[in-house]
Amino acid sequence: MTHPADILxxxxxxxxxxxxxxxxxxxxxxxxxxxxxxKWAVVAAACMIALIIINIxxxxxxNTTQTNSFELSxxxxxxxxxxxxNE
Length: 87
What we know:
Blueprint: H1 4-9, H2 20-30, H3 38-64, H4 69-75
């Protein structure tokens, strides 16, 4: 049985193609920076602000009507008992 270290010693060094490093650098330098259009950023910001406003209005509305979790669970016909068995 061969030892894993013996297998690694059989690996031969391979020479890189000529000018590989300069080709890689050239591709990196020629890459155009991709940016998000300003119009999309404004639309995304407007959507986030709208969602925040909706959340605040829903939270404030539930606080003003004094709806607690028990009343809410009864409204949706959820089980309010903490017992594991219905006896």
